[in-house]
Amino acid sequence: MSSIRRYLVLLLLSVITIVLFFAAIKGYKSSMERATRLFDSQLVTVADTLESMQLTGNVGQLNQDAEMILQIWHQDELLLHSINGPLTPITLQSEGFRDENLAGQRWRTLARYYPQSGHWLMLAQPLSHRYELTEELVLAAVQPLVFSLPVLALLISLAVKQGLRPLVSLSDALRQKRADDLRPISLKRTPAELEAVVITINRLLARLDAAFSREKRFASDAAHELRTPLSVLKINSHNLALELGKESVNLNLLKDGVERMSHVVDQILLLNRTNPEHFSLQMKPLDLYVLCQQCIASLYPQIHARQQEISLSGETCLLAGDAFSLNVLLQNLISNASKYSPHNSQIEVSITQSAEKVVLLVEDSGPGLEESEYERVFERFYRVGGDRHQSGVSGCGLGLAIVKHIVELYDASISLGRAVHLGGLSVKVEFSRRGRGHVKNQH
Predict the structure, then answer these.
(1) How much is the pTM?
(2) Which of 4, 190, 202, 283 could, after both became Cys, cross-link 184 (CB 3.0–4.6 A)?
(3) Taking residues 119-145, what's their average pLDDT?
């Protein structure tokens, strides 16, 4: 994941380094030009000094410093030369400065003519001295800047961190918001660059709050407007059957249709209430084993009517959970195991726990599912075999979608498989001990 802070620090350091590099090159060139003028002026001064001494006479040698070569010529006669100088002219008898190759290195030469004496005075100085002086000057100027780069990087990092503090505050404010917290964001200090972002986010939150409020009102209105007439239909169909005094195929179809419509309405309302986007868990310590017992007790008339056997194994297992959501999860899993298993079948519910997780397992001896259907059955309104399942049981395809939503609320996982002992469908829900809402067992 890229970091704006790291990017800005590296960018600024790179720019500063590049600027220093070009500044060093410019400084080197400027220093070289100044060193050239300085040493050239020195050569002229030395030449003028020697001429003023009026050195004349036969050819002789001057015990001169080895870092400079000296020659005095009169026409084609060498009058005087330094001990390290050759006996031939070191440069042309033409006034001015030149760069020459002498003794295996480059030299800066000066030829100067004095008309009064008729002397040609020639001097040579190694160019390496000029380079060394220039490098020393540039290094002396650049070294402190190079050594200060780590300190500069630290200061830039602190400055960038301070500059990005409002952005970090905005990020923290968004991260700390709960799923149902749609209040506007308010920062202590909002810079001009972030003001438009904060305004846009607050407008978005306001629209989301209005949309969720409409959904909640819809759920409440649907519960009242749909359940009441369906209850009246149930009562009227029951009274009609009593009045006729006999079973009627059409009347039975009416009863089944009303029951199915009631089931669909209940499942849709449950789906809306358990949607992770606007469902807030009311956490408190709950015993998952006791919840299973209560759920089995409430569903036992349905299980007994199908002459099925159900067993529960496990032990006390405390979860910091929401009673409503866990009851909905258990009701759907156990009810599905009963509805889609044949008469005289078996259902097993077990709770196991370890240091890492708690596992809820619901298995049945029904026909089970093909492996290719394991993912699709969690989709809304999807039913294996279409509108009518091969078992003949009516449904709307929302049960496992609701279970999936609840599993996501608890940061848990759900998987389907083939029951080892019973041969039917096996549904495993795993609650991580590090996941949301888990607490240690208390015995």
Answers:
(1) 0.50
(2) 202
(3) 82
